[in-house]
Amino acid sequence: MKKVFGIAIAAVFFLFAFASAQAQQQACGPRDKVLAHLADKFGEQPVAMGVMTGGQAVLEILASQDGKTFTVIMSLPNGISCVKADGAGFQLLDPLYAESGA
Length: 102
Known about the structure:
The protein is α+β, with helices and mostly antiparallel strands and 102 residues long.
């Protein structure tokens, strides 16, 4: 019985730790405030965007002018944007279809 109780306690601890890590990774807020924060802190501005399948959200890529940092946000119809990813070394690529003339 003690072994089962110990396993249960460990499982609960793991689930709470995992949920806490997930919550910390996703920063959300009003889109204008998220954009202002990324501009002020990292010098990032929107460089690309697209409407996600189903039209339920817009995915945006923001990058600093020198390409040192970038952030991907998802903006919802209710005006809330969430950071989905961030990184370094951003660069725009020439699209393949530009070379083929399509």
